[in-house]
Amino acid sequence: MSTPSEKYATFRSDQEHPAVKEFRGLYDFALDEFQLRACAALEDGHQVLVAAPTGSGKTLVGEFAVHLALQRGQKCFYTTPIKALSNQKYADLVSRYGADQVGLLTGDNSINSEAPIVVMTTEVLRNMLYAGSRTLLGLSYVVMDEVHYLADRARGAVWEEVIIHLPDSVAVVSLSATVSNAEEFGDWLATVRGNTVVVLEEKRPVPLFQHVMVGKRLHDLFAGETPTASGGAQAQFGPSAGRPPVRSGNPAKAAAQSSAPDLRDMVNPQLVKIARDDNRVFRDDSRKPRRRRDLPKGRPTRSHFTPFRSDVVEELDAGALLPAIFFIFSRKGCEDAMLQCLRSGLRLTKPTERDEIKRVLAERTVDLPDEDLGVLGYHDFAEALSRGIAAHHAGMLAAFKEVVEELFARGLIKVVFATETLALGINMPARTVVLEKLSKWNGEAHVDITPGEYTQLTGRAGRRGIDVEGHAVVLWQPGFDPRAVAGLASTRTYPLRSSFSPSYNMAVNLVRQVGRTRARDMLELSFAQFQSDQAVVGLARQVQRNTEALEGYKESIDCHLGDFLEYAALRRRIGDRESSGSKARKQDRRVEAQESVEKLRMGDVIRIPAGRSAGWALVLDGGMRSEREGPRPTVLTLDRQVRKLSMIDFPAPVEAISTLRIPKKFNARNPQQRRELAQVLRVRTDMLGEEGPPSRTRGRDVISHADDPELQEMRAELRAHPCHGCSDREDHARWAERYFRLDRENRDVQRKIEQRTNTIARQFDRVCQVLDALHYLEGDKTTEAGDRLARIYTELDLVAAECLRQGVFDDLTVPELAAALAALVYESRSKDEPTSPRLPRGDVRDALEKMGKIWRELSALERDMRVDFLRSMDLGFCWPAFRWSSGASLAEVLYESDLAAGDFVRWTKQLIDLTEQIADAAGDNSALRHTARQVIEQIRRGVIAYATVVDEA
Fold first, then answer.
1. Shortest CA distance to 386 belongs to which of 419, 422, 341, 354?
2. N or C: which end of the chain has fewer CB within 10 A?
3. Strand 110-111 relative to strand 324-327, pairing
């Protein structure tokens, strides 16, 4: 029950923020304090940045911006990073405000685009800003959901472009996952957009408990009073409502009760023991294979294993820990896991749930062509869904993924095997999240997941208003380190780093709108430059401190006889000269030594100057010369050892002092022959004496600096300097050395400042130099070619624009144009894909060769201008695009290309986007524009047309 003071505070807040009061009444639950603070700031006219954990309800602040816009008769755009999230948010807002009040723009579709509330992908808003779209009129609020996406290397720049270029009259609501530098990001937003209130929330709405599953047993990751792994489902999970009694396993609570700052010290000792025993067995087993009966008594055996995926699901079901998201960082792994559960006979649904699942699936896939069902894996997919099991990854058809998302959100699907793309914004909370491994393939190598990724993935665990607690389960793997997992679970440092850099399309659009100088100034407002400048601030402070220290050193160096810094500098030049001379002589000495070893021949008697074999030796083989190691002669020593020497054994030149005849049939592996030859060598060396005759090279060992006239001149100048006679000379010299060291360090810091200052602007200048050289820009104006480039939004924008200008696409047929443009959109997921993919015959091959030549010429120009934007063209999608546009069936195209259905649909839709841009940029070339339109018509069929219908639904 609220206290009188709390009631009065609520009354005052309602008086000051009537819109928040009205909005709060729309929900049947109380808003959190951070949500109320953010909404109040928005009503007060501020812009806001909300950084909160996944599932905490930060999108509610974005919905309040929608509420304000409707209440005030204004417009609000709600932007998301991916189309699926746009579709989901569109459906949510339509259910609340009605279809007439909400529109959708995702690049593929335009639904009610002039509505007061429009949901769109961030790229769509960026393109509208550059095009000066009339839809922007009356815009008052822009919600940027998942704004931390600006760290994404491929697409992050779009978020910064939007934030920088939005009119000042628009209030930006930025919604971010928890990042450790939210204040820095907020400072940048305030710099660019004006007054911005930063609202931070670090508390999860549902407590998260961490576990490790070893075999079929679930262990707490952190030590607690009541262990969860005491055997048996009920013993493990406790009798209370089937939930695990893991209250003391909460790391956040445990950290609050402990003074230890590192949660890795609180790891469950039982897990540490299991890991230690398991690793010891693994090391023993790796030495050599042995039969079990041959193992010594008492030796531990490997009893801990990674559980089967179906077993994991069964254990979670027995412990009432479903629904669960099971993250597997492989598309094939997700499909295999779904099929494994099917083969195991696992069934997680009731008859009524199965009926509803079948109804929803039939309703959502009614327009799917019957002939494509088999190749899309529909039947296994439908059977798995009916059992409460599903896969979810980027290779699936979008419609299938959306069915999974809807059914999971309704609680009809109990377990989803998913890749990490599921964690990117889609609203699919679960009671439990399972991570099969803590490493993933990033396209180039297997890398460990970061603490930020771990938090993003496990953040799905715990459904607000449904679950009392969420659970994160990591599966045991060979070489498992529980302390490393604890480090991932407890790390709270996830800085947001900008990935912004100006592109060719961005440059021509900005210059066309505001001119080159203004565009340069605008780009200096980027978060990337802001972060770079923040680092410069620290470096500038260091320069200031160093400069003050240098002034102090000067006072200590002051000499009454003259300028001691001048004298000290002369001493340093003499030292540098002597040092460089010594280094040169050492290098000459090494070269001389190597040449002498190369001259050695079989039978030479030498004295090895250094190394383990130092002393007399007989050369058995001069050895082959290696570019890396130099000559490697083989010798016989007096103690009858045959050694292969290296240049380490010859720090000084060596020469043959005498020679011995080596028998033709001498075998170095025969001990008797070695003994006899070593005896002959001993007799010969006894005759030569202990040191042997004088070496012709010994007189060269000591070389004086007297032969260097410049050095002698500097020494004379030093002796003549007034400070040379100072009684405090050495004391002054020590301070001078400190001065020179600090001065060198200060110059290095100043160079760093110069490199970091105006980095984005300098990069923009280099981009403009490329565009100037190609005549896309003329001063502050864009040429006709520049206007075409402004309409092309792809990584290879400049290649596409050059192909247009040089007429590469002009005489191509519809399938040929589709194949040529496919080379500009496709990018293979793995470097293992064929480097020489199948290509269609005919004019398209000539076109692709011309495109390759254009790409090489542009890459050379980029190198000259010190920029690097154009990735290599990828021909892996040319054949599928050619076949599909020629009328081939989906089964034929997928069989011939080995593409997943979802990948084929996604790349084809991107091909449609680029083809529309080419048609728009074709200008007066009506033939090319007509061919491009035909390409779109011929490839937007079957499953592609169905995917578009689903997006519009």
1. 354
2. N
3. unpaired
HEC sequence for 19-57: HHHHHHCCCCCCCCHHHHHHHHHHHCCCEEEEECCCCCC
Report residue 123: phi and psi, to 5°: -60, -35
Coil, strand, or helix at residue 719? helix
DSSP state letter for 320:
T
pLDDT tens digits for range 299-354: 444 455 678 888 899 999 988 998 999 999 888 889 889 999 998 889 999 999 99
Measured at the CA of 262, the angle between CA 260 and CA 266, to 5 degrees, comes to 75
Closest-CA residue to 61 (of 99, 103, 84, 27): 27
Q: Per the structure block, which two tokens stand in for 79?
A: 């932007």
Q: How far, rounded to the nearest angstrom, does the alpha carbon of residue 313 sit from its chain's CA centroid?
A: 31
- Dihedral over Cα of 818, 821, 823, 827: its sign: negative
Give the residue carrying structure tokens 């993003």: 456
C-alpha span between 616 and 614 (Å, rounded): 7
Q: Does 830 or 616 have the greater pLDDT score?
A: 616
What residue type is 869 in one-letter code? F
Region of residue 669 (left: phi > 0; alpha: psi -120 to 50; beta: else):
alpha
858 CB contacts (<8 Å, ≥6 apart)? 798, 799, 802, 870
293 pLDDT higher than 50: no
Show the tokens assigned to 348.
Answer: 């997680």
Tens digits of residue pLDDT in 711-764: 778 888 888 888 888 888 888 888 888 888 888 888 888 777 766 766 788 888
Q: Which amino acid, residue 529?
A: Q
Q: What is the mean pLDDT of residues 384-405?
A: 86
Distance CA 140, CA 73 (A): 10
As a three-state string, the secondary structure of 177-203 is CCCCCHHHHHHHHHHHHCCEEEEECCC
The total of other beta-carbon atoms located within 10 Å of residue 761's CB is: 17
pLDDT tens-digit series, residues 3-21:
665 554 565 666 678 888 8
Q: Answer whether 0.70 is exceeded by the pTM.
A: no
Enclosing H/E stretch for 4: helix 4-16
Tens of pLDDT, residues 623-674: 776 666 778 889 899 888 888 888 888 888 888 888 888 888 888 888 898 8
> DSSP letters along 453-485, please?
HHHHHHTTBS-TTT-S-EEEEEE--TT--HHHH
Q: Which of 496, 492, 435 lies closest to 460, judged by CA?
A: 435
Which residues are CB-neighbours of 915 under 8 A, at least 6 positions away? 817, 818, 821, 932, 935, 936
**Can the peptide bond before residue 323 be classed as cis, meaning omega within 30 degrees of 0?**
yes
